[in-house]
Amino acid sequence: MEPLISVIVPVYQVEAYLSRCIDSILSQTYQNLEVLLVDDGSLDGCPAICDAYAEKDKRVRVIHQENTGLSGARNAGIEAAEGAYLAFVDSDDYISKDFVRVLYELLEETGCAISQCRFSYVQGEALKSSRERGYHLYRGESLLEQLYGPEEEATCFVVAWNKLYKRELFAYIRYPKGRIHEDEATTYRLFHEAKKLVFTERALYGYYTENAGSITAVFSRKRLQWLTAQEERIVFFKENGYDRLLPAAYRKLCDACITFYLRCTKGVDEKAALQKDLMNSMKKYCVQGKSWIRKLPLRTRIGYRLFCMSPFLYAKVLKRIQ
Questions:
Q1: pTM (2 decimals)?
Q2: The dihedral of CA 175, 231, 197, 212: what is its sign?
Q3: Three-point CA angle 133, 129, 121, nearest 5°
Q4: Of 85, 79, 80, 75, residue with least CA distance to 40
């Protein structure tokens, strides 16, 4: 008999999309599932929708809890899960009917602890089917290195929801409660434990956005938690001998400081204070990571110096180059 697989769905204020998400999970070609709907204190019709699905399908279990955020909801699902494998699906997204089966068979075929697929930005349309059988294997340091590739590729690796995991990876790992950018703070630890990952080119996950292909977010102080996640990752790399990744890790931190600084436009609350904090962080990273930043291209290092001297001049030069 095929093993039980737990699909964890954090649910919060997504009444218009929830049924589409759950239906896509229940219609999987892999049927030995438990679907854990974690109602994270929703105030709309989501709790009733969750309960209705549990009454109709014995594979569905519902957890009702006070609002703890996405990390808290995922953690509640992890702790309640009974499956040998875990998957996460965000409640406004949906998956191909072969999502679970393809990822499970890849784990069986390769002996990996994590499998992952590509995702598509969607607005409600059906995911295009593909019979492509090719896959890529990533091991050890080269797996962690994928977190520093081109933006679209790095996103594919860092997110929690396009993957199937062996349950034992979560024996001691949880998502940081109360924080955003929780994937950035957690996935690298899972990669370290897994040692090996298999990646199929098939797009089996639909990431819902009202403007497909264009993701925007209002900048706020909370976004600085992304920097915290990267700082923790650097400490982890140093403790676990991933020194070769440190130049890229410091580059990502410094580039983010600049990007965040430039996003502090007139409409952003605490603009001056945020920019001051970001400049201080940038200078701190340049000092702490000096020996690693020295390995970056000269053009990059000059850019960092220019930004620290004059963000205004840096922005003018950047605009001209672009």
A1: 0.93
A2: positive
A3: 110
A4: 75
Residue 322 CA to residue 319 CA, distance in Å, equals: 5
What's the pLDDT score for residue 247? 97
Domain ranges of the chain: 5-208, 221-321
* 217: pLDDT strictly greater than 80: no
Closest residue by Cα to residue 226 from 260, 251, 269: 260
Per-residue pLDDT tens for 152-191? 899 999 999 999 999 999 999 999 999 999 999 999 999 9
The C-alpha atoms of residue 115 and residue 98 are separated, in whole angstroms, by 13
Token duo for residue 226: 């992304």
**What dihedral angle (degrees, nearest 10) is formed by the CA atoms of 73, 74, 79, 83?**
130
| pLDDT tens-digit series, residues 262-283 | 999 878 888 999 999 999 999 9
Q: Which CATH number fits domain 5-208: 2.60.40.10, 3.40.50.1980, 3.90.550.10, 3.30.450.20?
A: 3.90.550.10
